[in-house]
């Protein structure tokens, strides 16, 4: 135990950072009964629209976490892009490849919600679950030992936790304190200004695009769904510090569009950044995990950063819960880096290609195809499986009147028995596994499919042979007859 551990507040999990990543993890842990604390250096949730696009896979995650209705009420579809030149409308363009909403994926297209609103919704859900967020907690140090982690703050007592999660952004204090490197590249040498504004003189049915002209970079003005605001995004072609004031944004918008300076009536929030792609060398060091921007930094093009970050939390949450409840060995936590780091690397590459115009915002950016086929948690025992395989996302279907996304909702595992009898699985006094039985159903086909708490097929088989051994890894009980 560290020197100050006896004076510290004790929790099971300390989450540093109250952005979408930290709040989503807090929600997931709270519904699992884990004593977790989210700490944030700021005095409140961070403002700004930032990551405004929620991909279909993230919508499924939010369905499971119990915030989907609020997310749907707070946002809207992406508008069609409208290209302007010399004050004239010259072309329209879809910002994303067309996507169908179907039974497999009822949330087929990206959904726009300003990041500040997503954070508010997650915070509200965390409050409902009696989770905790503590603001004004600036981390100044971290120490680990065999039993846990102690985190010190600029003011107030330290916190002692069995595990800690760094969700404190691209400049992560925790990552730097641990000495974990971050390897990356500059995606675009030109800085970008982003601001939430109030603007008159533009319709809210289009994403207004002003291509580069002369020595001016591009300007894009997007109506933010569910608000009266427009998000202004502008490429800056020099290295001087951008003017983020109302006058500065007015001058920039007037110089690159047909709008007059006074058409920008308010700047509610503004920031700037340099697009880059970077990946942490490790996602775990002993009892500390990196998640979200602390682990991977994306160009905003394609809307992958926030979504990949939320899915980090979703992957880690059920594993922490299982280990802390004694249902799985601590080695289960090693699969977080094993599964998430390759996926983050893939999404980083995709974001960079979209930014450079080398890839479309299409099927891959929706993140429905992400899976864990190569994971040590994945077991595919069927003789032939040309379609869906263990490790893949479990697609939605309605089986014997049960909608699978409804069946998956909650912190449990789900056993699908399709065209075959369901073995008894799970302890008799536990609701750790829900069973859904029905006829053979595509794309699953016939067989048994054990779906993880995060919605991926962990084990698949033609018969129950081998299922018992798999479930014993998670203390789910032994199926009878195997």
UniProtKB/TrEMBL annotation:
Residues annotated as domain FAD-binding: 11-348
Pfam families registered for this protein in UniProt: FAD_binding_3, Rng_hyd_C
Domain of life: Bacteria
InterPro entries linked to this entry: FAD-bd, FAD/NAD-bd_sf, RIFMO-like
Record has Secreted as a keyword: no
Cofactor: FAD
UniProt keyword annotations, A-Z: FAD, Flavoprotein
Flavoprotein is among the record's keywords: yes
NCBIfam families in UniProt: PRK06184.1 (NF004832)
Protein name (Swiss-Prot/TrEMBL): FAD-dependent oxidoreductase
């Amino acid at each position: 135990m560290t020197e100050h551990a006896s004076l510290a507040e004790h929790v099971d999990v300390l989450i540093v950072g109250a952005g979408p990543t930290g709040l989503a993890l807090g929600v997931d842990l709270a519904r699992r009964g884990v004593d977790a604390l989210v700490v944030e250096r700021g005095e409140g949730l961070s403002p700004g629209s930032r990551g405004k696009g929620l991909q279909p896979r993230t919508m499924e995650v939010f369905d499971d976490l119990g915030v989907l209705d609020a997310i749907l009420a707070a946002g809207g579809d992406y508008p069609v892009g409208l290209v302007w030149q010399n004050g004239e409308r010259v072309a329209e363009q879809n910002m994303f490849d067309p996507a169908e909403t179907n039974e497999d994926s009822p949330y087929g297209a990206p959904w726009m919600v300003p990041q500040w609103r997503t954070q508010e919704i997650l915070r509200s859900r965390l409050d409902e679950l009696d989770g905790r967020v503590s603001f004004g907690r600036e981390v100044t140090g971290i120490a680990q030992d065999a039993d846990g982690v102690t985190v010190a703050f600029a003011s107030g007592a330290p916190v002692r936790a069995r595990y800690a999660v760094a969700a404190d952004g691209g400049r992560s204090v925790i990552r730097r304190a641990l000495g974990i490197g971050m390897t990356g590249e500059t995606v675009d040498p030109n800085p970008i200004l982003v601001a939430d504004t109030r603007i008159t003189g533009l319709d809210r049915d289009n994403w207004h695009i002003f291509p580069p002209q002369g020595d001016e970079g591009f300007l894009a003005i997007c109506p933010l769904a569910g608000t009266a605001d427009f998000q202004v995004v502008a490429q800056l072609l020099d290295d001087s510090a951008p003017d983020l004031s109302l006058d500065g944004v007015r001058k920039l918008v007037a110089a690159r569009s047909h709008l007059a300076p006074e058409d920008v009536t308010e700047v509610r929030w503004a920031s700037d950044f340099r697009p880059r792609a970077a990946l942490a060398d490790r996602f775990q060091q002993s009892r500390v995990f990196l998640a979200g921007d602390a682990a991977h930094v994306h160009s905003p093009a394609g809307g992958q950063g926030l979504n990949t970050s939320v899915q980090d939390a979703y992957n880690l949450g059920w594993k922490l819960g299982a280990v802390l409840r004694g249902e799985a060995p601590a080695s289960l936590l090693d699969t977080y880096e094993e599964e998430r780091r390759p996926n983050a690397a893939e999404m980083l590459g995709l974001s960079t290609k979209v930014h450079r115009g080398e890839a479309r915002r299409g099927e891959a950016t929706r993140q429905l195809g992400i899976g864990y086929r190569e994971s040590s948690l994945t077991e595919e025992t069927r003789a032939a499986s040309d379609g869906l395989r263990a490790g893949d996302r479990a697609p939605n279907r309605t089986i014997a009147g049960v909608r699978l996304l409804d069946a998956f909702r909650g912190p449990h595992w789900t056993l699908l028995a399709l065209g075959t009898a369901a073995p008894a699985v799970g302890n008799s006094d536990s609701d750790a596994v829900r069973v859904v039985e029905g006829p053979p159903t595509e794309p699953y086909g016939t067989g048994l499919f054990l779906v993880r708490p995060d919605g991926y097929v962990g084990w698949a088989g033609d018969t129950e042979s081998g299922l018992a051994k798999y479930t014993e890894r998670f203390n789910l009980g032994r199926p009878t007859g195997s």
